[in-house]
Amino acid sequence: MIIYKKIELKHLSGAKRFNLKVFFFTTSYKMSMLKILLVTGKLAYPILSEAVKAIRNAEIDIVAMDVPVAALMNVRYIAERLKGVRGYDYIILPGLVFGDATLVERATGIPTVKGTEEAWDINLAVEALLQGKSLSPRDPADKFISKGDSEKYLREIESNFREAFTVSGLRIPLRPPPFRIFLEVAEKQELSDIRRVEKYVDVIVVGFPVGHEDRDEVRRKVKEAIELGKPVGIDSDSPSELVEGVKAGAMFVFNMNERNIEALSQVKRDACFVVAPYEVNNKSQVVLSTLKKAKEMGFDRMIADPVLSPPLKGFVDSVKEYSSLREAINDVPIMMGILNFTELIDVDSVGVNASMVAIAAELGASCLLTMDKGKTKWSAWETREAGKMMSIAMSKSKLPKDVGIDLLILKDKRRIPREPSRGIEIGRNEPTMDRGFSRIYLSDEDIVVEWMGEGGEIKLHGKDALSLGRSLIRELEKRGVKPSLEHALYIGYELSKAEVALSIDKNYIQDKPLFKRIPNGENIDT
Questions:
Q1: Is the peptide bond prior to 74 cis by the omega test (within 30 degrees of 0)?
Q2: In this structure, is residue 411 part of a structural domain?
Q3: Are residues 168 and 299 in the same domain?
Q4: How distant, in Å, are the alpha carbons of 36, 149, 204, 253 from that of 222?
Q5: 323 and 194 belong to one structural domain
Q6: Where is the Pterin-binding domain positioned along the sequence (predicted)?
Q7: What contacts 89, CB < 8 A, 6 or more positions away?
């Protein structure tokens, strides 16, 4: 049985009396159950009320503070309003509340921790407490629940998978999970750009264009890549460059095919060879015949790659080739160059990479080749996270959903209910002029805001938009300048856009929209 009750808490503080009207949502009580008080804001209250219906083994009360959202609360505010509350085993605050929840614990005498950042996930925090897990008074529960469990599963996967062979200490899975990520370095890509994502990849592949013949450059680039501390591969259509790369320390060769296999035999014991077809027809059969010949010649470490075709250029047929190859071999790992799809479609890479890793997982490809530049920047991280997601899902025989890892960056899984519009509808209006102007842009690592005009020049930089805005206003006030409220609002708006752009590594141009708008009835033409 589920019941609602309305309670008025009366709190006396000095000479003032505060009346806080709160609503409680309560499940039927059992003596063996934990009794937990959840604190939330007004907007999240309906979500929390719905979410706790799935909890069957705890008595849950919800108190909605007179604040719209959790981010506007702090622990001191909550502690003042919960003084005198008794009879609970735990108090759980929203994960986004600012401050240390031990302040609430001291005020109430009840152990107090932070819950999840998303109200819909509160059942995970409650279940963690029921299982005897420790949550934190300072950090959101997400840090200890989903991530902790997913990391545990990933460690188990890494300990128990079937290994094909080892190259430079890197264990290559015969079939996923797990996955190994190979990063193809573009010809003119700087090593500093590779350092940005090196922790997300297992192998760095140095590539050279068709027709390239410069063995000195091959040696130099391979040795530079080796200094990054990862196993290195070489990709060239020149057999002599491939051999030179192996002699310089490259441990993976892209690609061995039916035409160059004889030339590569001199280094057959010194590296792992990715076997890919030179011919474009019957690719899986060509790979199989090349593998057979290579084994007869004494090659002992090989990865099969029937080559993924780009979208609308034979992609589906190439997937069929992967399926045929998977059925035909059970002792050779398979590689999929997902960059052939991600690079050649003008779609945000995160969803494409995740989908391609899921396809690779079904086809038994444990080795994934990606590229990380331009519109596919951060593909290394996206592919790594997608690999983790698919690995956990495969190990638990479930869909890649609710596994503790996600790639939901621009969209949310659950929609928070919106309130109806109230008040006066406002269209576009023009700003009033002020006594100075501001310029906002992104540097390599920070948001930069500059003020020019009355009060002289001010230049500030940092990563937190709100702190930058406050600091600019305070600096102007020191100089006797008080920008108009409209101008201050505009600066805050643009700083917020810049912070979002910085957080997802997107371009930011002042006064320009940050994203395309999804069409609806009002903006379908824009």
A1: no
A2: no
A3: yes
A4: 59, 38, 10, 12
A5: yes
A6: 165-391
A7: 34, 35, 36, 110, 111
